[in-house]
Design a protein that fits this description.
ACT-like_dom_sf, alpha+beta, 7 strands, seven-stranded mixed β-sheet, single chain, 2 helices, CASTOR_ACT_dom
């Protein structure tokens, strides 16, 4: 599988399920997924906490849609290590979230799988 350059983002994220919403009431979201069971909303977490479970984000370099196996190369080693993920894919790359308390283990697993992990800020 393809080794990638991943950035561990400086900010954390939260996930919310809004079963009766067609669109969130605020404009603070990063990604939305509408499904039959409702709306999933991904937001940057407040730096002050209190907004639920927090997730750390690994963002890959741009690879486009035509290169198979890019997401699998990241999530397979995490799954093998028993680390939960939530993924928001874009046209160019993937944002792979892991629970905040798993971020160090996930970094080690991804590095052991051949990926390069740096820390850095991506603007959403």
């Amino acid at each position: 599988m393809s080794a990638q350059k991943l950035r561990l983002l400086d900010s954390f994220f939260t996930l919310a399920h809004e079963p009766h919403s067609a669109f969130p009431d605020d404009d603070e979201w990063v990604a939305l997924v509408r499904a039959p069971e409702g709306l999933t909303v991904l937001r940057e977490a407040s730096p002050f906490g209190g907004d639920g479970d927090r997730w750390a984000g690994f963002y890959g370099d741009a690879h486009g849609l035509g290169k198979p196996g890019m997401l699998a190369a990241i999530v397979a080693p995490l799954a093998d290590a028993g680390i939960a993920v939530f993924v928001a894919s874009t046209f160019h790359a993937d944002l792979v979230l892991v629970p905040e308390d798993s971020v160090e283990a996930a970094t080690d697993v991804l590095t052991d799988a051949g990926h390069t992990v740096t820390r850095g800020r991506a603007s959403f």
